[in-house]
Amino acid sequence: MLLADQLTVIIPAYNEEASIADTVRSVLGQTTVPARVIVVDDQSTDDTAALARAAGAEVVCPLENTGSKAGAQNLALDLVTTPYCMAIDGDTTLAPDAIELLMKPFEGDPALAAACGFVVPRHVSTMWERGRYVEYLLSFTFYKPTQDYYGNPLISSGCFSAYRTDRLREAGGWSERTRAEDMDLTWTFYQAGHRVRFVPDAVCYPIEPHDLDFMSKQLRRWSHGFVQNVQLHWRGILRLPFLSTVVGIALFDAVVASLIYLIVLPLLAIVLEAPLLLLVYVIDVPAVLVPVLVGAWRRGEVGRALVSLPSFFVLRTVNGFYMLEALVTEVILRRPLLVYEKGH
């Protein structure tokens, strides 16, 4: 069993006074309590540092803002002396046994570099939170377990993942060369011959964007990060059959599905005077509904999932717009997104 003195938890935080205390307390209240909990207060303009200290964390304050979550995490990584470390977002709380469960796969598997858990939005009230709730149920009930079965989860989620410290340092820590540092790190591990696992019983609860402004920032960062990582890693990915297939499908969906949803279907409906064509928008409802209801049933949240389902299709349409914008900006216009804009 993992000993408490073997793990350091890193929590990057910028203006997280509304949530940082809950995050720290959820870490310190675990069945496996880590040796250190380091909060990197990245030059917040609120009371993040004071609240983190009061909750029991060790707080590190850089002289100036590092510019990204990856930068803040790397600052703390230099202070880690334990064989394992964990990254948790400053707006994320954990189920009481989440750390214990997430660390179990590391026992007896020296090739394992990282492990990630199940993600469920903490608040499910607004349309955007409901859309993300259904999206996560679909991803973590169907896509992620399938990817884990074949040994290649697409991303070790940045909001809650554990690492072997030496493997993380060999990879250069969290890279700042893309806007999706968790995806970059995961694909770097695979190309180095390391393994990554998904642990569905280890559950975390991040605060997801509650309005279009916050959601837009997050979707823009994620979309550009995905395109940047494909451009960066495509040669190495081609050597990994299953991962290259998963990335290829995701890229196809980002390009073709987005074009169909946002441009082709509306134009055809207008030109052919056939509004029934718009029913294609929801043609895959059964394919979405089955895994979502399975995940919701396990959590006793079937009603919440059914009510939230329409929001998922709104979110998917908006996400398609940002994927196309990222592809045009990054690939055609050659104007990469360089600034990390916080959107939860």
Q: Keywords for this structure?
A:
eight-stranded mixed β-sheet; 8 strands; 11 helices; single chain; alpha/beta; about 350 residues
The description of the largest β-sheet is: 8 strands, mixed
* Strand numbers in spatial order across the main sheet: 3-2-1-4-7-6-8-5
End-to-end Cα distance, whole Å, is: 33 Å
Give the overall pLDDT as a whole number: 94
Molecular shape: globular
Our count of helices gives 11
Tell me what you see in this structure:
- It contains 11 helices and 8 strands.
- It has 344 residues and is an alpha/beta fold.
- The protein has helices spanning 20-28, 48-55, 69-77, 98-103, 127-149, 165-170, 181-191, 212-237, 241-271, 285-299, 302-332, and strands spanning 7-13, 36-41, 58-60, 84-88, 92-94, 112-119, 160-164, 195-206.
- It has an 8-stranded mixed sheet, sandwiched between helices.
- The radius of gyration is 20 Å and the shape is globular.
Concise synopsis of the structure shown:
The protein is of the alpha/beta class.
Strand and helix layout:
Elements: E1 7-13, H1 20-28, E2 36-41, H2 48-55, E3 58-60, H3 69-77, E4 84-88, E5 92-94, H4 98-103, E6 112-119, H5 127-149, E7 160-164, H6 165-170, H7 181-191, E8 195-206, H8 212-237, H9 241-271, H10 285-299, H11 302-332
Parallel strand pairs: 1-2, 1-4, 2-3, 6-8
Antiparallel strand pairs: 4-7, 5-8, 6-7
Helix pairs in contact: 1-2, 5-10, 5-11, 7-8, 8-9, 8-11, 9-11, 10-11
